[in-house]
Structure of Metalloprotease:
Amino acid sequence: MRIQVRRTGGFAGIERHAEVDTADRPDAPEWHALAERAVAQGRDTPPPGVPDGFGYEITVDGRTVYAADPRLTEEQRGLISRVLKEGA
């Protein structure tokens, strides 16, 4: 599974992008479950955000959904955090 996160907005407006490929990871089932829940709760179009808040584009195996602060679900927040931390 290929998971990509693109974060835009924020006070400085700096875009950040990261990607994780779970193919050879021993914790792949955990990633898959989290990614499936996060995508299921996403929107097909970018939601309205708040001033200086972040907007997110989450792509899992070619399916893209959108989310924005402060209305992230726990699963979206967890997936975004992990991908931005561990991804390259």
Observations:
- The first helix runs from residue 28 to 40.
